[in-house]
Amino acid sequence: MTDLGFKGAVFEERIKHLLKVSNGIVAKRLHIRFDKIEFEREIDVAFVLDKHLFLIECKSFNQPYTVREHAKTNKKIRDAIDQLNRNAEYFEGSLNIVKEQLDLKDTIEIKEIHRVLLTSTTLGEAGKQGNILLTDEASFNGFLLRNSPNLTIIDGNKKTTICVDNEGIYSGKVTAHKMIAFLKRQPLIESMKKRISKILESKGSISYLCCKKTVEDIYIDKGTD
């Protein structure tokens, strides 16, 4: 196993362990292989919650810092989305295999299926991306542990702390409804976006889009302990 493969396997086990110990959610890996036709499909983490099936692709990336690194990471994310769609398409059409590998009764009803790309890298853009729900490990852990993130705004001598959980997503028991709401809206990222303005500026004959904070400083407490 390569170093990257090892990191990926450890990442998957962390997620399955946290799902179990924090909320009693039993998640497993889905895998099917037909050697004769060289066909293989797998889902890293799968579980059923409130009749909703979640298919999660876990990707361990290095945190990007430069423009070039961000571009490479974005390319990796696009490739991971394509991979997840291929794998999910098979299992969505083979729910009997899903139920068997998750040790579920054949009579268990599955109302909806959700494809999730979970990265080890902290993301500045997340939520619903086409037919994929995209989030990062730190945010997902905070949701599972019911640790609501806060946004602290420092503007000169004025310090204001804002709770970004206006919908109770981080309160009470984890449900499919709350998990879907979290994955679609990413409260912390949405709150930060509202405090960043995009301005078209120019220098000579060159025009460019510039992002600027609307406050002096921002401190993020993701509440992941």
UniProtKB/TrEMBL annotation:
| Domain NERD stretches | 7-102
Read off the InterPro entries from this record. NERD, Restrct_endonuc-II-like, tRNA_endonuc-like_dom_sf
Hydrolase listed as a keyword: yes
**Which GO terms of the molecular function aspect are on file?**
hydrolase activity; nucleic acid binding
Signal peptide, first to last residue: none
Q: Does the keyword ATP-binding apply?
A: no
Sorted keywords for this record are: Hydrolase
User: What is this protein's record name?
Assistant: NERD domain-containing protein
Which organism was this protein described from? Enterococcus thailandicus
